[in-house]
Amino acid sequence: MKIAVVLSTYNSPFVLRMSLLGFVTQQDATFQILVADDGSDERTAEVLREDCFSGLDLQHVWHPDDGFRLSAIRNAAISRTEADYLIFCDGDCIPRKDFVASHARLARPSTFTAGGRIDVPSKIHKQFTDQQILSSEVFDPDFLEQRDRSMRRFRNRLTAGQRMIAIMNKLTWRHCVFSGSNAAAWRQDLLNVNGFDENFPGYGSEDRDMGVRLRNSGIKSQYLKYSLMQLHLDHPKTHFDPEVSRRNRQVFRRRRWDGTTKISDGINKTPLTT
Q1: How far, in Å, CA of 16 to CA of 22, rounded?
Q2: Are 44 and 74 a contacting pair, CB within 8 Å?
Q3: Domain assignment present for 264
Q4: Would you place residue 154 in the very low, low, confident or very high pLDDT band (cuts 50, 70, 90)?
Q5: At 108, which helix (H) or strand (E)?
Q6: What is the pTM of this model?
Q7: Number of compact structural domains in the chain
Q8: Is residue 270 part of a domain?
Q9: Are 199 and 266 in contact (CB under 8 A)?
Q10: What is the domain-level CATH number for residue 218?
């Protein structure tokens, strides 16, 4: 099974660099990374050229900055790879060293998978050093609690053994939606629904829409909150527009009930026939 990580980013070289350091630590090194870049300036390309990332199989998938076009750049990344299984992650998340291996181990036929993330306040993650990431110290609950006592609430998620993980995954089960920051699917299943809908007018629900259409097409889902660990480097959501988000939610909720699977403005731009 060939695996590729689709790592989304936009003008955030500082946190992207920390995310890539997390991928340097992965126990399973046989994967490709497609940096899906929604129009960043040269600073992102400079990060990708750093010597510390020379051991990663990196591809920079970029298009010009023309507003929020995350769906389009993700579709471009899907088209660029021949990997069988795609893991989607955001460039402001640090994966734990077992992240890729866990996604691979938990992959199931005709099924997509989603996980959660642990939000780390900026006052903590801005102080992370390269060595702390490379040594996985940033996933040590004592390390996090020493910097902010509020991080204590994540101790169980960071220390749970396999038996407890299985129990907690069942207790935290919810109707699985596709989460663009921590999800995985078979490339052919994504192609069958024509990828992400590029008509979504801005941030919000474009990934959940993907989950709805995959399920409508007969693909099962699994939500594994405790199995797929990553840290989200929290930051202000300057691209969030409540009205756009509301309209996007209406679209994916309508599609949940009307059975929509394939959309016209996705990887292929051919109008659908009726």
Answers
A1: 10
A2: no
A3: no
A4: very high
A5: none
A6: 0.94
A7: 1
A8: no
A9: no
A10: 3.90.550.10
